[in-house]
Design a protein that fits this description.
The longest helix is centred in the C-terminal third of the chain and has 19 residues. The protein has ten helices and six strands. It has 225 residues and is an alpha/beta fold. It is globular and about 45 Å long. It starts with a strand and ends with a helix. The chain has one domain: Rossmann fold (3-Layer(aba) Sandwich).
């Protein structure tokens, strides 16, 4: 089975490598989003062009949930299943437009900001190696890119896509997600809570991989002749 992992707001698929390694027995590829692609309208066709031949399973983290939902609507015959991870169907929180504009003047990609945000990023699952990697990842992304993607999040609404989807799916809800609130999962079906923070695939990769593997195995059994 071919599995494609879609990244979070930073666009760095390499952050999911521990999860990819833990999902043994499958061909797993994590995509990296180009910096210049910031809107969902641009990202959906780009991801579609990266998909390999044959059916695939999408694993969509956070920012990429709406990308997967739109791909399912457009290419349901190509997509075997979707795993939504700590994501949303519409803006997860209300953020004043002024706050988004002000963000351009903040050092949001700096190591200092990462340390400041640590309670929201990893909480009690804090891992120095991951935080260092995440800091390096953000340092390679332009602030303008992150802000533009944040704007895309604030205006997206794919609830109808998810409601009418016929592709099997599962939603991994982080038990201690301080970025995407619990209510964001109500738009999805087959919700499973995984103990961990927002960055599930990075901080508890083995546990997340076990849930995904069980889901995929169940699909295989159901489809067996």
């Amino acid at each position: 089975m071919q599995i494609i992992v879609l990244p979070g707001l930073d666009g760095d698929g390499n952050l999911a490598q521990p999860f990819c390694d833990a999902l043994r027995g499958h061909s797993v590829t994590a995509l990296n989003y180009p910096d210049h692609l910031t809107s969902y309208a641009d990202l959906v066709p780009w991801v579609l062009a990266q998909l390999p031949k044959g059916p695939v399973t999408l694993i969509a983290q956070s920012f990429s949930g709406p990308v997967a939902a739109q791909l399912v609507q457009q290419q349901s015959a190509k997509i075997d299943a979707v795993v939504y991870v700590a994501t949303f169907a519409m803006r997860p929180r209300r953020i004043p437009k002024g706050a988004v504009r002000a963000a351009r003047y903040l050092p949001i990609t700096s190591g200092f900001m990462i340390k400041l945000m640590q309670p929201w990023i990893t909480g009690q699952w804090s891992d120095a190696a991951f935080l260092a990697q995440f800091s390096q990842s953000l340092s390679r992304v332009k602030s303008e890119t992150l802000i533009a993607r944040l704007r895309a999040v604030l205006s997206v609404d794919v609830r109808s896509h998810i409601t009418h989807a016929t592709v099997p799916s599962i939603y991994l809800r982080a038990s201690c997600d301080r970025l995407v609130p619990r209510r964001a999962s109500t738009a999805f079906s087959n919700v499973v809570t995984v103990e961990g923070p927002h960055f599930l695939l990075q901080t508890v990769p083995t546990e997340a991989a076990a849930v995904v593997a069980d889901f995929l195995n169940t699909l295989s059994v159901d489809r067996a002749p």
